[in-house]
Design a protein that fits this description.
The protein is of the alpha+beta class. It has four domains: 224 residues, EF-hand (Recoverin, domain 1); 55 residues, no CATH class; 300 residues, Toxin ADP-ribosyltransferase, Chain A, domain 1 (Alpha-Beta Complex), CATH 3.90.176.10; 106 residues, Ankyrin repeat-containing domain (Serine Threonine Protein Phosphatase 5, Tetratricopeptide repeat, Alpha Horseshoe). 50% of the residues lie in helices and 9% in strands. The chain has 41 helices and 20 strands. Helix 3 crosses helix 7, helix 9 packs antiparallel against helix 10 and helix 23 runs antiparallel to helix 24. This is Ankyrin repeat-containing protein. Keywords: ANK repeat, Calcium, Repeat. It comes from Chrysochromulina tobinii.
């Protein structure tokens, strides 16, 4: 393998190993990875050569540790750096030894490509006494010995590696930099000609290393600014060196004329500056001061306030800011709360639907408008771009982007893609930090703002200044559409994303505007500044802000806000969700406080150094939506205190448990959005008061010792009766122990004047509480057909499942009998039919003894268990009892009128309902069954038809009904043939 290829192999392998280390690979694995990369790269780059990293003459190149030692020794020899200088530079803590940590830093600062494992191996080799630190003698001996013992091949290799390396010896840095740069430039063309591919790889590795060093330098600057690193420049600044120079220039004393010193300095000539500085022994600063004075020549004034006054003659408008009272009021005091909307095409009310309405169906939705950035569009178009873009559609774009900056054009992206980016770029980080996640409405709002819709949103907000011109402009632009919910969503987006923004300085450029007096005259609290009504777009790039602020003419009004973000007060980086990500926008929310700290003049530009304060009174969407729910919870805390006085210590804890469990089951199980419906909120507040009254007045009846709770004839009024029952059920389940954990319980609510809504709530309670196996709601005709149907469906839902039997007619483990009256209310009829067709029943004692039923006496049935196919047929029972009301309802519910007893049973006669009715002589039942299609030709186990059974019993009227032509009837009741 040639030396050029070997050179590239090691550079590429080292870059790969460094990356692996950054990604978390252990040191020993990095070494193995490095060696494997060397071997793999040699095979790819030099397939015709040997399969090892050999030099020009086939001799093996050095191992990693030896390679580092050779490069370092060769660099010392070439640069003539003294070992003592190198030792002192690496001994950072000046303790006379070099620790392993200092050794690593020292080697890394020389830009030698080496893994931590290589460095540690070399350190162990040089640490001859095993003390864990290198003294000067050990370092000197190791380097001298290492250089003298190098082979020719290794020495040549080390010389090539050391060619671009810097050792920062005392007084030799500049010379070394220059020498290295000249050597690299001179050799570059030759290297490329010899091995273009290998040099390309090496250059990439060197570029990566250069970036690493640049990042390190940037970190050092940050450390200096934060006070974590001492530097001479910062120390000198703290010693007021500028005052020394100012004294040397013999400035005039400050007077009423604030510009006297500015005019004096601006008129200084080079000769005057040289003379003044020489007198103060500061001649070395002459060129610097002369250049600084020259930069003042295009500046018209040194006073920011004076410049702002001059802007008043050319500015197109004056910026308007609010007072502290506006700041403390928050966004809701400005616009009102966000609202939910259902609309004709949606099943539920939501904030998203309201945002959609604001853009697609409000008065200005189809009106064209032109934003200051040159885009002419409509609100409905922008909603489509963000939420449902059409593939291939041509949407409005900023002026000049198509022709001059095609890569800057916005790319419509489906909402699914942006939602995925939200999870990856945002919500994972928010979750990890324990913050609330971004939701869909906030995502859509933030993305809409980065397009031309920002113009409408900010116009709405700034019209709240009550400035007549701005109010009229907003009315013309939006036709009264305040975009309230959308602006709340954007604000919430900014609040959440600000938690992910790194603190630092941001800039905002504004042109054609003049600052109001509040930024120049302190208020009663000694503060200058104001409250920005709208959103504020800023950038972390000062040059970009200067571009935004730049005017066409020298006298044009140009202002730069320089703002320091802090631990709490930070804007939101919208880059990942922006329609124009190249802008790297950092957005501040509405009602941000901007406090003026100092003002400078740069040429014809006003630079305002300020501190920002985010509006903590403005809430996220969840906080706004949860406000009413929180009001309820605060109210409950007060009720608990009242219960202690009303119930006394003995019953208080039981009553509080019922209250808390009832609320957890009912109101507090609702989503926060539910409370923002005025009807819902009004209802639940009243319901909670009724719940308090119910617990206080009924607590002595709500015993939990027995599984049956008797509330027959319950007279408690109000809307919280089912909540009381829910609290009792959940308390009983939670407090049960031992065998009682699995115990079923029942509630007797006969004649309790239940309503339809309460019946629906009871059905839901039975669904959520499987151990509530029995209710008795008979005598509550007020539940109506709808309420009866809901309860009946609860019973019928268990049909054929074999689960625990349930009842709404009072059948429980302790009372398995069911009474079926002869005349039933339609509500009770429906409930009874649900139980008759769901479970297996047997006749009561009287019927089993052969006693004939009386028309004025209810029939009694005993439940035998869950449903079993064909063992029990309720229509046959109704035919036998001649219970026309039950039979008719069963047929309405879909029971087969021709169903027969199964032929498999020993006691089964394979009878149908018509057989039974004909045999019993129940004329009305026969008429009912025939009217609904009963088959008269069906035969029982003994081959009898219904007619034959009637003839045996001599029921003449039934016989006549069962005969038609020639004695057989057509099938309609009372229709006899000749």
């Amino acid at each position: 393998m040639t030396s050029e290829i070997a050179d590239a192999v090691h550079a590429a392998a080292q870059a790969a190993a460094d990356l692996a280390l950054e990604l978390g690979m252990p040191d020993d694995k990095c070494v193995q990875f490095y060696n494997a990369a060397v071997l793999a790269a040699s095979r790819v780059l030099d397939p015709a050569g040997a399969l090892s990293t050999e030099g020009d003459e086939g001799k093996l190149l050095p191992d990693s540790a030896t390679r580092v030692e050779a490069i370092l020794a060769s660099a010392i020899k070439k640069s003539a750096v003294r070992v003592i200088d190198l030792f002192q530079e690496w001994d950072l803590d000046r303790d006379g030894t070099i620790s392993k940590k200092e050794f690593r830093r020292g080697l890394q600062s020389t830009s030698i490509s080496a893994t931590p494992a290589d460095i540690d191996a070399l350190f162990a080799k040089w640490d001859s006494d095993g003390s864990g630190a290198l003294d000067y003698n050990e370092l000197n001996r190791a380097l001298r010995h290492g250089l003298s013992s190098l082979s020719k091949e290794v020495s040549l290799f080390a010389d090539r590696e050391a060619e671009g390396m810097l050792l920062l010896g005392r007084g030799q840095k500049a010379a070394a930099v220059k020498q290295a740069k000249e050597a690299k430039e001179a050799a570059k063309e030759a290297r490329l000609a010899l091995s273009p591919r290998s040099q390309q790889l090496k250059d990439a590795a060197l570029a990566s290393e250069a970036q690493r060093l640049a990042d390190m330098a940037k970190a050092w600057v940050a450390d200096e600014e934060a006070g974590r690193r001492w530097t001479a420049s910062k120390w000198l600044a703290s010693r007021s060196i500028s005052n020394v120079v100012a004294d040397a220039l013999e400035l005039p004393k400050l007077s009423q004329d604030a510009t006297s010193q500015f005019r004096y300095v601006k008129r200084l000539t080079r000769a005057q500056i040289e003379q003044l500085l020489a007198s103060a022994s500061l001649s070395g600063l002459t060129e610097f001061v002369v250049a600084a004075v020259e930069s003042l020549q295009d500046q018209t004034t040194g006073s920011g306030e004076v410049l702002n006054e001059k802007f008043a003659t050319t500015a197109k408008f004056q910026m308007t800011y609010g007072s502290l009272s506006l700041f403390y009021g928050g966004l809701e005091s400005l616009l009102g709360p966000p609202k939910m909307y259902k609309g004709p095409s949606h099943a539920e009310r939501s904030l998203f639907n309201m945002m959609e309405f604001e853009h697609l169906a409000d008065k200005d939705s189809k009106m064209e408008f032109t934003a200051p950035n040159g885009v002419t569009t409509k609100a409905e178009t922008e909603w489509t771009v963000v939420c449902c873009p059409v593939k291939g559609a041509d949407y409005p774009e900023r002026t000049g982007y198509r022709e001059h900056h095609p890569s800057w054009r916005r790319v419509p992206t489906t909402l699914d893609v942006i939602v995925h980016q939200m999870e990856e770029q945002c919500n994972k980080r928010l979750r990890a930090a324990g913050h609330s996640e971004l939701i869909l409405e906030e995502l859509v709002g933030g993305r809409l703002y980065t397009g031309p819709m920002y113009f409408k949103y900010n116009t709405v907000l700034r019209s709240k200044t009550k400035d007549a011109t701005m109010v009229k402009f907003a009315k013309d632009l939006t036709k009264g559409n305040l975009y309230t919910t959308t602006i709340h969503a954007i604000n919430s987006c900014v609040i959440k994303l600000s938690k992910l923004t790194k603190a630092g300085k941001v800039w905002r450029g504004i042109k054609d505007a003049v600052l109001p007096k509040e930024f120049w005259v302190p208020n009663d609290m000694g503060v200058r500044g104001g409250i920005e009504y709208g959103f504020s777009s800023t950038t972390t790039n000062r040059e970009q802000a200067l571009l935004f602020a730049g005017g066409q003419q020298l006298e044009d009004a140009s202002t730069i806000f320089e703002m320091q973000m802090g631990m709490v007060d930070r804007g939101a980086d919208l880059t990942w969700l922006s329609q124009y990500p190249h802008e790297a926008e950092v957005l501040l929310p509405p009602l941000t406080g901007i406090e003026a700290l100092s003002v400078e003049v740069e040429g014809s530009m006003l630079v305002l150094h300020s501190r920002l304060s985010l509006n903590l009174a403005s809430l996220t969407l969840e906080q706004v939506l949860s406000r009413r729910r929180k009001m309820l919870m605060d109210m409950v805390s007060g009720i608990e205190l009242e219960l202690r006085d009303q119930l006394g210590e003995q019953l208080f804890f039981f009553g509080r448990s019922l209250l808390q469990r009832a609320l957890a089951y009912g109101p507090l199980s609702k989503d926060p959005e539910w409370f923002n419906d005025d009807e819902n909120f009004s209802y639940v507040m009243q319901q909670v008061l009724h719940l308090q009254h119910g617990l206080v007045s009924q607590i002595h009846r709500l015993h939990v010792e027995e599984p049956e709770l008797s509330l027959r004839g319950w007279s408690l009024g109000g809307s919280a009766r089912v909540l009381v029952l829910a609290g009792w059920c959940t308390h009983r389940v939670a407090s049960a122990s031992g065998s009682a954990v699995y115990e079923a319980f029942s509630i007797d609510l006969r004649d309790a004047m239940l309503t339809t809504s309460e019946a629906l709530e009871l059905a839901e309670l039975m669904t959520k509480q499987p151990r509530l196996t029995a209710l008795d709601v008979r005598g509550n005709h007020g539940i109506g057909v709808q309420g009866a149907e809901a309860l009946a469906r609860i019973i019928e839902s268990t049909r054929g499942t074999g689960v625990v039997s349930r009842s709404v007619c009072g059948v429980s483990p302790s009372s398995s009998s069911l009474e079926v009256g002869r005349v039933l209310h339609p509500v009770e009829c429906r409930l009874l039919c649900a139980e008759l067709r769901t479970f297996v029943w047997a006749d009561g004692v009287a019927a089993s003894m052969g006693l004939a039923p009386r028309k004025d006496r209810p029939a009694t049935l005993n439940r035998r268990g869950a449903f079993a196919a064909n063992e029990w047929q309720p229509l046959l029972w109704a035919a036998k009892e001649n219970h026309l009301q039950i039979a008719k309802k069963l047929i309405e519910l879909g029971v087969d009128v021709n169903e027969q007893q199964p032929a498999t049973g020993q006691l089964s006669a394979k009878l149908s309902a018509l057989h039974v009715a004909a045999q019993k002589g129940n004329v009305e039942m026969v008429d009912l069954l025939l009217a609904h299609g009963a088959d008269r030709t069906l035969r029982d186990k003994h081959n009898n038809t219904a007619l034959m059974l009637a003839e045996k019993k001599k029921h003449m009227e039934i016989i006549m009904r069962l005969k038609g032509e020639g004695g057989i009837m057509s099938g309609r009741p009372g229709d006899l043939s000749a």
